[in-house]
């Protein structure tokens, strides 16, 4: 269930802002309108001088004195006269006076007949005024209460009403946004949290990770029978850390734990905690634990925990927000009661950078390794995903598994899907082994690049280059048999490639095998030089690979005489790119480079020697490849044997190697 989608909807936010804008405009217009109506056609201002002359002429009926104004009401006759002169259309009174009239209605008939003042003038400190008014027989008095009323009403309409409306609107808006964890709800962890009441995933859906499943089975039991463990005094685990490369099924395993234990599954990514604002992450952690405890028993899965769990360092420029978030997480993990059945699972592919405090007993103290699957694991994963796909009898999942050494669960799932799509594309109802192999190639080297038209010369060079690799492979011991040679370019940069098949899965490589691999990798370049007496850019990938192997032999595997068993490099990010970092001084680094160079030179000379001795086979196979574009390992070996005069081997023995298709060991890039 996705709590978040509706809040992420940009239209929703836009609508909110639209409403605010329209309401603000309406309120402003309303207030402006009321105010101008209030001003209405009220009394007109006249000079004090004119006021005095009006008194002298006996035109004033009544005067009301205010603290800063004097309101003048004319006699009926004077009024008519004045209005005729000035063209004023009577005195309809303003909103204020109308309201006032209404407020006062019913008080007395005399007051009802009372007219509104016609003029007003500023108050002047004229102590003779009272005398003058008395002499002229003008009624006078003061109206403080009315002024007060007017001021209050004015205040209400111009200040209190708009502010009140705005405040109401703000409250409404905040509530709306906070509810979904939008702009105002930044502290809410449900901003990016997903909750599934029942995942429906079981351990059967996760193939190949037997050790991980076994460890997690225990955890499921904790959730099922917490009493069994707490009864004896055992503390239940609070968290487990799933460690492994991407795509190996860590999320799937966490879901399976929830599915097996039949408890709700909360999941969110570590990066979802960390925000620009300090303190937001911490408040999200608090909120997450609060929610999870309410739902317990349940599983909370934090993916990519390294985003918040990185080692805190004291150096300058540390990330305050991340540290606060981590501290909060540690505090919450210490605080919650395991007997309720709350379990935190976290996944990472960089366990080495996690803060030691996270891995302490009572926190993520269980580390469950979810590594790349081995051959058996790959077969099982393929079976799990092939269950729902119709396949014909040609399909041999074991052969696919053999060809996909190093692939993880998500790659394999993807391959099965690609194969099914390929079958549909060709109008077939079932998936065949060919579709599966095509899918393997698509995942590993990309799709065929049909629009790339190579010139005749280029095709020739690529062809010799690939046959160079293949021939060096066949001419050496300790290599994997050739399965396929092609000069059809692929989208991931290969202009051609040779596929090799391991006869069985290997966990170790001998020194001889590694040396042979280097010679094979350089075989392409050697063929170019022998045949065309020039070299091309096509060998870049081979050179990189050969150098990597040679370097690792010297620095990591202790396979050079010069350095012996000295460990010169260590591997970082084992579950990601496996980058190596040198552990030696500059002088030694220089010596390592020399040794690598020596090794590569030797291997290149060996490749050139092998090819020069077998020039006829090289030419014949290359010509055949140019014609066919793709040839199988069998076709390759047939020509090779013919040229060399080697008899055909026992059919069964040969098929064991060549029928299986192989891992791609070299790509020849542009
Ligand atoms: P991770 O969390 O380790 O990056 P995921 O659990 O998200 O990997 O795996 C992605 C997908 O790959 C899964 O949904 C599943 O289809 C497939 N997959 C990965 N590992 C396995 C496995 N061991 N068994 C079956 N399917 C797997």
Task: Please explain how this structure is put together.
The chain crosses the membrane at residues 16-35, 152-174. By secondary structure, this protein is of the alpha/beta class. The protein contains 25 helices and 17 strands. The strands form 4 sheets. A 6-stranded mixed sheet has the order 6-8-9-10-7-11, with helices on both faces. Residues 1-10, 105-113, 180-191 and 653-670 have low confidence and may be disordered. Adenosine-5'-diphosphate (ADP) binds at residues 206-209, 246-252, 347, 381, 384, 409-410, 413. Adenosine-5'-diphosphate is lined by residues 206-209, 246-252, 347, 381, 384, 409-410, 413.
Task: Furnish the topology, listing elements before pairings.
Elements: H1 5-8, H2 10-39, E1 44-45, H3 48-56, E2 60-65, E3 69-74, H4 76-86, H5 95-104, H6 109-113, E4 119-122, H7 129-136, E5 139-142, H8 144-180, E6 194-196, H9 210-224, H10 226-232, E7 239-243, H11 250-261, E8 265-269, H12 280-295, E9 298-303, H13 306-309, H14 320-335, E10 342-348, E11 366-369, H15 375-386, H16 397-403, H17 409-425, H18 433-445, H19 456-475, E12 482-486, E13 497-500, H20 511-532, H21 540-555, E14 569-571, E15 580-582, H22 586-613, H23 615-628, E16 630-632, H24 633-644, H25 651-658, E17 663-667
Parallel strand pairs: 1-4, 2-5, 7-10, 7-11, 8-9, 9-10
Antiparallel strand pairs: 2-3, 3-4, 6-8, 12-13, 12-16, 13-17, 14-15
Helix pairs in contact: 2-8, 9-10, 9-11, 12-14, 15-16, 15-17, 17-18, 19-20, 19-23, 20-21, 20-22, 21-22, 23-24
The structure holds adenosine-5'-diphosphate (ADP).
Adenosine-5'-diphosphate binds at residues 206-209, 246-252, 347, 381, 384, 409-410, 413.
């Amino acid at each position: 269930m996705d709590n978040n989608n509706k809040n992420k909807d940009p239209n929703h936010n836009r609508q909110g802002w639209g409403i605010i804008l329209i309401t603000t405009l309406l309120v402003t217009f309303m207030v402006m309108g009321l105010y101008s109506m209030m001003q209405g056609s009220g009394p007109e201002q006249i000079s004090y001088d004119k006021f005095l002359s009006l008194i002298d002429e006996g035109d004033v009926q009544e005067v009301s004195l205010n603290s800063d104004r004097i309101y003048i009401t004319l006699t009926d006759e004077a009024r008519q006269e004045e209005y005729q002169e000035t063209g004023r259309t009577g005195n309809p009174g303003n909103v204020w006076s109308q309201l006032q009239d209404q407020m006062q209605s019913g008080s007395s008939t005399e007051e009802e007949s009372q007219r509104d003042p016609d003029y007003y003038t500023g108050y002047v400190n004229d102590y003779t005024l009272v005398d003058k008014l008395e002499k002229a027989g003008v009624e006078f008095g003061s109206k403080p209460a009315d002024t007060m009323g007017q001021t209050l009403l004015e205040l209400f309409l111009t200040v209190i009403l708009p502010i009140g409306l705005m405040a109401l609107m703000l409250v409404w808006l905040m509530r709306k946004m906070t509810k979904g964890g939008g702009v105002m709800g930044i502290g809410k962890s449900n901003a990016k949290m997903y909750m599934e009441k029942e995942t429906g995933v079981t351990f059967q859906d996760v193939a190949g990770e037997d050790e991980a499943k076994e460890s997690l089975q225990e955890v499921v039991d904790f959730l099922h029978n917490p009493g069994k463990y707490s009864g004896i005094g055992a503390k239940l685990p609070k968290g487990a850390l799933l460690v492994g490369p991407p795509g190996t099924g860590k999320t799937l395993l966490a879901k399976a734990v929830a599915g097996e234990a039949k408890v709700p599954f909360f999941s969110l990514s570590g990066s979802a905690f960390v925000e620009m604002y300090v303190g937001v992450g911490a408040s999200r952690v608090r909120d997450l634990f609060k929610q999870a405890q309410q739902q317990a028993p349940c599983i909370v899965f934090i993916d990519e925990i390294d985003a918040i769990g990185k080692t805190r360092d004291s150096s300058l420029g540390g990330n305050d927000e991340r540290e606060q978030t981590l501290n909060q997480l540690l505090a919450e993990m210490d605080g919650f009661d395991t007997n309720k059945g709350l379990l935190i699972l976290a996944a990472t592919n960089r366990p080495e950078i996690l803060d030691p405090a996270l891995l302490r007993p009572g926190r993520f103290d269980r580390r469950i390794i979810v590594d790349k699957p081995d051959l058996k694991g790959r077969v099982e994963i393929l079976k799990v995903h092939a269950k729902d796909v119709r396949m014909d009898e040609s399909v041999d999942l074991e052969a696919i598994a053999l060809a996909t050494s190093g692939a993880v669960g998500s790659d394999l799932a993807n391959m099965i899907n690609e194969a099914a799509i390929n079958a549909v594309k060709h109008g077939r109802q079932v998936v065949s082994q060919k579709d599966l192999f095509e899918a393997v190639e698509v995942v590993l080297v990309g799709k065929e690049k049909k629009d790339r038209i190579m010139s005749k010369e280029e095709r020739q060079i690529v062809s010799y280059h690939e046959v160079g690799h293949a021939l060096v492979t066949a001419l050496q011991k300790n290599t994997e048999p050739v399965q396929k040679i092609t000069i059809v370019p692929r989208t991931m940069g290969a202009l051609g490639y040779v596929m090799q098949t391991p006869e069985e899965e290997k966990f170790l490589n001998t020194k001889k095998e590694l040396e042979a691999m280097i010679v094979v990798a350089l075989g392409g370049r050697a063929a170019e030089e022998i045949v065309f007496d020039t070299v091309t850019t096509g060998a870049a990938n081979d050179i990189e690979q050969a150098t990597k192997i040679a370097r690792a032999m010297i620095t990591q595997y202790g396979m050079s005489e010069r350095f012996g068993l000295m460990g010169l490099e260590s591997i970082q990010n084992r579950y990601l790119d496996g980058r190596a970092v040198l552990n030696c001084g500059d002088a030694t680094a220089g010596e390592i480079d020399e040794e690598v160079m020596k090794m590569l030179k030797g291997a290149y000379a060996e490749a050139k020697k092998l090819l020069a001795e077998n020039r006829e086979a090289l030419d014949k196979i290359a010509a055949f490849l140019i014609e066919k574009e793709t040839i199988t390992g069998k076709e390759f070996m047939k020509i090779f044997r013919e040229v060399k005069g080697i008899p055909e081997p026992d059919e069964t023995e040969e098929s064991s190697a060549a029928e299986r298709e192989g891992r791609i060991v070299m790509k020849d890039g542009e």
